[in-house]
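May I ask for whichever protein you like with its C-alpha cells?
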Amino acid sequence: MSRPDRAFRTQAIILKRRDFGEADRILTIFTPDRGKLDVIAKGARKPTSTKTGHVELFTRTDMLIHKGRDLDIVAQAEMNMPYMGVREDLVRGAYASYVAELLDRFTGEADEGYEELFELMDDTLDRLCSESDPRLAVRYYEIQLLDLVGFRPELSECVVSREPIEAEDQFFSYPMGGIVKPGYAHDGMGVIPVNVTTLKLLRHMQRSPFSHVKTLTIHPALHDDSERILLGYMTFLLERKLQSVDFIRRIRQV
C-alpha cells in the first residue's frame, strides 16, 4: 500500500484568514485539486517572515503544504496574482469579500468539481479588477456558482407544470428553485414576482460565456432586481444572512 504524500504543492486562493497565537495565521484557502482547506501559516505575522505579504486575502498564491496532525502547514508561499484592483478600491474589495464568502459557504471538504470552482473564482477576481461594471461580474459569478454547486435555478420552464416559460412577468419560488408561471403561483409556495426583463438577463447569464454578457449595459434598477432574486435564493439555501452584504449596502449609501 502506498503511503500518503507528506507534502504537496498547489495553487490557492485565500478566502479567509485569522490570527492564531502570537505570530501565526490560519488561512481558509481554495485549491483546484483539493478544494477548500484550512491551513496554518506559522510566523506569518512576523515582519521578517518569508510568508509575510504572500498570504494576503483574495490573492492567488503558489503554496507548498506539509501535512500536519491537526492542521496542514504552509511551508512555502509565493503570491503570483495579487488582484490589485480589489485591494486598491473599497467597492471592488467589498465585492471580493462577498464572492469569497459565497464560495466558502457553498463548499465543504467533501465537495467535487474543484477545478471549475477555482477557475470561476479566479476569473471573477480578475474581472472585479478589470471590468467597468463589477456588479455584472458578481451577478454572473452568482448564477454560475449556483450551477456548479448543484442549485441551478430553473429559468426556462415552470417548476410546477414543466411548461415552457413565456415572455411575460413570472414568479420565482425559493423552495422549488425556479420560475413559477402566474397561473400556478399561490400563497404558501414562497414565491416572489420577477419581471420579464430580469428573467431575460438571468437566463442570458446562465447560458452564455462572460465574453457575451460583458457587452451588456445594465440599468441600476435591473441590477437591483436581479440581485434581489439571486441573493434571496442563496440566503434561503444557506439559511443565514451573508456578512459581507451589509457592508456592501453601507458602501453604496456613502
